[in-house]
């Protein structure tokens, strides 16, 4: 088994990056939208630091993911996909990358320009500041963080919607090839052979 992407599948490293980042962003969104309502107890500050630390972790993961993408390439388009769909998907994917970089960078800039004490990444070390205290930079960074999030929501809905459309209506391998292989019966590019015709099946042992 290769870790790299092949001509017809995303490899396990790309899949792990994709789904781990999806889960972390979902958690960051839920916490980010609700943490302002928390009572100002020590837990409030703990939750903020957890949001910031997880956000910085996403930044590192996205940079590593992009490096892996440059090294490992990407699969060929699923056979039968019209060129216009490929182009829209390509633009959407790069916009998603831009936004998942913009979100942590704008959050970090907002935190830096607010003039607060440096936050400690999961309590381990002080994060450096990106800017000295500055109200204009702080407000601009907050606007980017808030609006960037809603643009991300719209893009993710279109992106996930397209993946499900391919799966349920076009019935092609677009979604399956971003998921771990469940069984050798699942073919990579189209419906698999019917049960019993798979020659790779282990012999039946009574
Ligand atoms: C992918 C990474 C991130 C995502 C998806 C994310 C998401 C969010 C969301 C949805 C909000 C609520 C915005 C609103 O009220 O409309 C928020 C608020 C906030 N985020 Fe993030 N965030 C990320 C990274 C970061 C980082 C790295 C930091 C700081 C180092 C940070 C600091 C903050 C702060 C301080 C707030 C509260 C803003 C306020 O005063 O209302 N975030 N975040
Ligand atoms: C239920 C939610 C999601 C589903 C079903 C999904 C599905 C997929 C699939 C099937 C691909 C591969 C497309 C292809 O082979 O052409 C893909 C790629 C991608 N997804 Fe998602 N995705 C989801 C959520 C997200 C989220 C939340 C983000 C980012 C915030 C994201 C970012 C990306 C990016 C950047 C790529 C392009 C990978 C590359 O070209 O390097 N996805 N997604």
UniProtKB/TrEMBL annotation:
Q: What are the entry keywords? A: Cell membrane, Electron transport, Heme, Iron, Membrane, Metal-binding, Transmembrane, Transmembrane helix, Transport
A family per Pfam: Ni_hydr_CYTB
Question: Where would you find the membrane-spanning parts of this chain?
Answer: 16-33, 45-68, 88-110, 147-168
Keyword check for Metal-binding:
yes
Record membrane topology: Multi-pass membrane protein
Where's it found, cell-wise?
Answer: Cell membrane
Q: Does the keyword Membrane apply?
A: yes
Which Gene3D superfamilies does the UniProt record give? Transmembrane di-heme cytochromes, Chain C
Q: Where is this region: Disordered?
A: 184-206
Any idea where the Cytochrome b561 bacterial/Ni-hydrogenase domain is?
9-180
Which domain of life does the UniProt lineage start with? Bacteria
Give cofactor(s), names only: heme b
As for family, the record states:
Belongs to the cytochrome b561 family.
Q: What is this protein called?
A: Cytochrome b
Naturally occurring in which organism (per UniProt) = Pseudoxanthomonas gei
């Amino acid at each position: 088994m290769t870790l790299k992407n092949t001509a017809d599948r995303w490899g396990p490293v790309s899949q792990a990056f994709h789904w781990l980042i999806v889960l972390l962003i979902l958690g960051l969104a839920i916490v980010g939208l609700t943490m302002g309502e928390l009572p100002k107890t020590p837990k409030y500050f703990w939750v903020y630091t957890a949001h910031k630390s997880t956000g910085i972790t996403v930044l590192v993961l996205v940079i590593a993911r992009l490096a892996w993408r440059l090294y490992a390439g990407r699969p060929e388009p699923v056979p039968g996909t019209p060129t216009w769909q490929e182009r829209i998907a390509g633009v959407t994917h790069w916009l998603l990358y831009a936004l998942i970089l913009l979100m942590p960078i704008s959050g970090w800039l907002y935190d830096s320009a607010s003039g607060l004490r440096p936050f400690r990444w999961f309590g381990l070390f002080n994060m450096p500041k990106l800017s000295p205290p500055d109200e204009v930079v702080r407000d601009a960074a907050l606007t980017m963080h808030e609006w960037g999030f809603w643009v991300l929501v719209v893009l993710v809905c279109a992106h996930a919607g397209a993946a499900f459309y391919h799966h349920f209506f076009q019935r092609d391998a677009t979604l399956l090839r971003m998921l771990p292989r469940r069984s050798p019966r699942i073919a990579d590019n189209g419906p698999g052979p019917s049960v019993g015709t798979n020659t790779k099946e282990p012999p039946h042992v009574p």
